[in-house]
């Protein structure tokens, strides 16, 4: 079976580890992947350059959509508003709330679904995982179930058979993502996590901490260069 | 009660009759309205100038968001793609399918919800009515129920009390909208319906036909100037 004859997926992708491993996971299952990314004015926009590297390496199409107008409208998050500090430390309910962009995933998934419907693709895919659930309500299974229902109802008569949302790691962890990526030979050095968006990963923000921890727990060597010394997180 | 102390709504507004009457209806109920419009490359972009007139007349804020990148991505609809003809005639299942932009309302409502969440507004409002149900699956009550559920779940912990989607005419008709607008003194001449987006309403496309019919059935004089002679629709 060639890639073109199998099912097709539109994957919202950030250039981070989660969506990149999801892309490789879909491709490994014979699914034709289109990467869809969004420029919403995030300060870690460097992630989009990393995504471009993944698209080239995988040889899959990458569509980038300008949502900077939406980003400006919803400013107030540490991710888009330079006046809000990116918090240090582990993911936790309090510090990470500043990194929530209101209704971000629904906005992105809605656009991805529009593209999937317009092109007759079966799958709208997303790299959310269980570790996101605590902080981000729009990464939880209950949200996906309801959104899937809204998509099926709202596009009735315009959908291909078996149209669905898929988030293969929704009930897994970031450690599972590292393990699956390692198994699939994902070049992790071509992924970007840091919310600060500097020249190299800062090593101390929430996503850097989470990234380091996932590699450590998976027992897999982390190829990432961090500005802060390795183990800085553990010392806190 | 001043406008500021009451509930607040973010209304997705097009400059058409339905959303304009919805804006006046919300305001009449003491709700502070913010109009939110989208430039998605629609050929009837003139509607946005009409919306600006309504915002000025009502003295309410109007936010316009550039979604032209999304419009380009989802091209293929008669509304955004100049190579697709706008169909003439009444709304009907076959001819009007060309005017469907994939998942459009979910995309717009998602952005509106993001703005409502970011600003602590209680209501995301929409001017859909019963006459839209036949053609547009994303104007049907079942879609709104599911989307409302997804919004409440996906933004859990970030919502003000009584956050909700509201579409006051969802179970009504366009005739009800004309009657309510007339009752509220809505200046219908400041609204735009025509999908062709010429200098005046064409009088023959689906929305022009629907507009003329609604005024006729409501028994209210239609102040709109049409390019085609009045009654052209009836002759078909």
From TrEMBL, chains A, B:
An example molecular function term from Gene Ontology annotations: ATP binding
Q: Which family does it belong to?
A: Belongs to the QueC family.
Pathway(s) it belongs to: Purine metabolism; 7-cyano-7-deazaguanine biosynthesis
Query: Mind telling me which HAMAP family this protein's record contains?
Result: QueC
Name the NCBIfam families on file: 7-cyano-7-deazaguanine synthase QueC
Domain of life per record: Bacteria
Name one process (GO BP) from the record.
tRNA queuosine(34) biosynthetic process
Q: Which named protein is this?
A: 7-cyano-7-deazaguanine synthase
Enzyme class of the recorded protein, top EC level: ligase
Is Metal-binding a UniProt keyword of this protein? Answer: yes
Q: Please name the PANTHER family in this protein's record.
A: 7-CYANO-7-DEAZAGUANINE SYNTHASE
Species whose genome carries this gene: Streptomyces qinzhouensis
Job description of the protein: Catalyzes the ATP-dependent conversion of 7-carboxy-7-deazaguanine (CDG) to 7-cyano-7-deazaguanine (preQ(0)).
């Amino acid at each position: 079976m060639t890639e073109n004859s199998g099912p097709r997926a539109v994957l919202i992708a950030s250039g981070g580890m989660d969506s990149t491993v999801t892309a490789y996971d879909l491709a490994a299952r014979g699914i034709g992947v289109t990467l869809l990314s969004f420029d919403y004015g995030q300060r870690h926009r460097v992630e989009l350059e990393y995504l471009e590297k993944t698209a080239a390496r995988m040889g899959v199409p990458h569509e980038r959509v300008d949502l900077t107008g939406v980003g400006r409208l919803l400013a107030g998050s540490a991710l888009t508003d330079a006046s809000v500090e990116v918090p240090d430390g582990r993911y936790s309910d309090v510090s990470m709330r500043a990194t929530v962009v209101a209704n971000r995933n629904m906005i992105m998934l809605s656009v991805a679904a529009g593209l999937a419907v317009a092109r007759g693709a079966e799958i709208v895919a997303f790299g959310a995982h269980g570790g996101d659930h605590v902080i981000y309500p729009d990464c939880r299974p209950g949200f996906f179930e309801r959104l899937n229902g809204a998509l099926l109802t709202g596009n009735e008569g315009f959908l291909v058979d078996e149209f669905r949302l898929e988030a293969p790691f929704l009930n897994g962890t970031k450690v599972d993502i590292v393990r699956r990526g390692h198994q699939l030979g994902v070049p992790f050095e071509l992924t970007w996590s840091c919310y600060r968006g500097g020249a190299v990963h800062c090593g101390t923000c929430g996503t850097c901490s989470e990234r380091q921890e996932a590699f450590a727990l998976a027992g897999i060597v982390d190829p990432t260069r961090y500005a802060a010394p390795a183990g800085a997180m553990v010392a806190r």
